[in-house]
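Weekly structure sync - notes
Attendees: PM, LS, DV (DV joined late)
Agenda: review two folding runs queued last week.

Item 1: First target. Sequence and structure tokens pasted below for the record.
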Amino acid sequence: MNENLLDVLLYLFENFTLADAEHVSNVRDDLDDAGFFPDEIDDAFAWIRATDPAGQALASSPSEDAIRVYSEREMHILDAECRGFLERLQQSGVLSATAREIVIDRLMALAEDAYEGAEIEQLKWVVMMVLSSAGQDQAYARMEAMIHAETPGASH
């Protein structure tokens, strides 16, 4: 995974709303002050822009009941645990089929090579970022609740 890009994205996610991050004039200055390089900042904003469903080049909108077949490279990046988690999110209504494809696309964009896989925690952050930047507040809240429910010692 491209850890530098992920660090910038996590910083943005924790300190700003991703949907507004690129439109706030002082965000770039804040990222620069935090020690991120200009090319990393540019890459992060390009990554965020690609979370917009209108910017995705899907051949057609995937059917909600279609079975997702992963390419060989996707299976190298997304292990069985990650693929199962994505399936669970879609089945529970947290992710639509289109949002799932955006999450997969954004994870693949973070992958530096075909042999370095995503970890489940990275997947969860990407899902949260995609839902946040798309303004899917209800799905975001459900995802957040799922994460807290999985945390050991969380109250039920």
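Item 2: Second target, run right after the first with the same settings.
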Amino acid sequence: MLLLAAVLLPALAAVAQQPAGPEMADQFRQDGKIYVVVGVIVIVLLGLLAYLVSIDRKVGRLERELRD
């Protein structure tokens, strides 16, 4: 228990000294690049969703073939 407290106390002190908001996001917002970041994230997530749907269809087709 004492070892855990000794490990966590410096980490908690470092977190307490950080500024309230993320500076990088504020800079992106000021430069107007936040929309690019959000757009890239949306594109990546849509790609992952499309990949999962295609894999689900393939697995469903294989399951139907095994039942028949």
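Discussion on item 2: Residues 22-68 form one domain.
Action: LS to circulate a short write-up before next sync.
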